Amino acid sequence: MKKLVIIGASGHGKVIADIAVKNGYEEIVFLDDNENIVECAGFPVVGKVENAENFFGEKIVAIGNAKIREQIQKNLTGVTILIHPDAVISRRVEIGIGTVVMAGAIVNSDTVIGKGCIINTGASIDHDCKVGDFSHISVGAHVAGIAEIGKGTWIGTGAIVSNNVSICEYCTIGAGAVVISNINKSGTYIGVPAKEKQ
Ligand SMILES: CC(C)(COP(=O)(O)OP(=O)(O)OC[C@H]1O[C@@H](n2cnc3c(N)ncnc32)[C@H](O)[C@@H]1OP(=O)(O)O)[C@@H](O)C(=O)NCCC(=O)NCCS
């Protein structure tokens, strides 16, 4: 029987549970440190995050914060990759463990996606991109070809990263921003064209 342990009983976790059902997981449970949450998307919350290793099954961390996601994933065994059947992924894409790819996402040829990433609903990443570990390409964000997204960077919903652009580690790109030139300093960037938020 395919069993999945989802760490984080959040909205993001719900979406992951749906992907798991579509991928044939027959038993799905959640772990969460909030004792008031007893179920998520119809599946039970059966324990706390620190006890994850005691639960049998493949595992996925469903926590939006990149540093927390990394911290939890690095201590886990049995971490899997989840891809919605309605995502379109080129045959020449590499995807690291712990990454989830949501419905409607498109990833084109020769792109490398690291560990623990979130490629969210309807996001696109074009050819020859590098997406660093634990980064998040939010709902409807678009990354054009030959772009590089640094580790832990969060591309906000509807944002655009133009082609050949490189963004360093641990940046936040605000919703709707358009990044047209390299970003070499970690920080929050907003607007069109994107500028560092003061
Ligand atoms: C960029 C962001 C992180 C800033 O958050 P914050 O630090 O809490 O900022 P605030 O909401 O306090 O706003 C501060 C100022 O920045 C402006 N601002 C915030 N986000 C902005 C954005 N995306 N584009 C343009 N301006 C923005 C606000 O209007 C405000 O301007 P003001 O000072 O003139 O009133 C946040 O607004 C954002 O875009 N988050 C992404 C959310 C997202 O994509 N979620 C996806 C889930 S899949």
- What pattern of helices and strands is seen along the backbone? EHEEEEHEEEEEEEEEEEEEEEEEEE
Determine the CATH topology of the largest domain: UDP N-Acetylglucosamine Acyltransferase, domain 1
Shape summary: globular
CATH class of the largest domain: Mainly Beta
Outline:
The protein is mainly beta and 198 residues long. Helix content is 11%, strand content 30%. The protein has helices at residues 11-22, 66-74; strands at 3-7, 27-31, 39-40, 43-47, 58-61, 82-83, 88-89, 94-95, 100-101, 106-107, 112-113, 118-119, 124-125, 130-131, 136-137, 142-143, 148-149, 154-155, 160-161, 166-167, 172-173, 178-179, 188-190, 195-196.
Could you explain the architecture of this structure?
It is built from two helices and 24 strands. The protein starts with a strand and ends with a strand. It folds into two domains: 3-74, Rossmann fold; 81-198, Hexapeptide repeat proteins (UDP N-Acetylglucosamine Acyltransferase, domain 1, 3 Solenoid), CATH 2.160.10.10. The model has no long low-confidence stretch (mean pLDDT 98). It is mostly beta strands and 198 residues long. The chain has helices at 11-22, 66-74, and strands at residues 3-7, 27-31, 39-40, 43-47, 58-61, 82-83, 88-89, 94-95, 100-101, 106-107, 112-113, 118-119, 124-125, 130-131, 136-137, 142-143, 148-149, 154-155, 160-161, 166-167, 172-173, 178-179, 188-190, 195-196. It is globular and about 45 Å long. Strands 6-9-12-15-18-21-23-24 form an eight-stranded mixed β-sheet, with helices on one face. Strands 7-10-13-16-19-22 form a six-stranded parallel β-sheet, with no helix packed on it. It has a five-stranded mixed β-sheet with strand order 3-4-2-1-5. A hairpin with a 2-residue loop joins strand 3 (39-40) and strand 4 (43-47). Helices cover 11% and strands 30% of the residues. It binds coenzyme A. Coenzyme A binds at residues 120, 138-139, 156-157, 172, 174-177, 188, 190-191, 197. Coenzyme A is lined by residues 120, 138-139, 156-157, 172, 174-177, 188, 190-191, 197.
